[in-house]
Amino acid sequence: MSLPETGPALRRYFVNTMFDSTFAVLGIIIGSALTADADRSLVISTIITSCVALAISTGSSVYEAETLEQSRRMGEIGRAMLRPVEETNLGKASKASAAIIAISNSVAPLVSGAIIVSPFLLLGEGTMIVAAEVAIVLAIVLLFCTGFTMGMLSEKNPWWKGIRMSLVGMAAFVVCYLIAGAV
Known about the structure:
Blueprint: H1 6-33, H2 40-81, H3 89-122, H4 128-153, H5 158-182
Helix pairs in contact: 1-2, 1-3, 1-4, 1-5, 2-3, 3-4, 4-5
């Protein structure tokens, strides 16, 4: 965390993955939970496995991207100092930074999925539509909270950022719902 680029990269990737995973789960709910013959266990397993797959995918891709960038940065510093810096404290901090960013990014889809799947886990078999509606509201609230946090971090109006992200989520829901209804 001592490197100046770690914090911004951490926030950027986490927020991006939180949005992506929330929208992916919204799509799963629309495509499977809001159907006439929705299967509760299928909806739950699809949400969980999709979020785990996203966690693995985003964590490994971010690790590879950050490792590449950190390696290039250490190479530039080494050339400027006329000696390798990979085994110095700076080089070790650089490697740790890439790992921390990747791990925290992997957490985002797991958090999103855990929150949104909860109504399906807590409500009974005969309440699929209610569970889906609650899950959709939770997804929109999650988008609001993420946007609100972004607003606070950027020192912009957090309420407007939260509302804007919620509106994007609602628009995505409407578009996907219309697509599912047309198919």
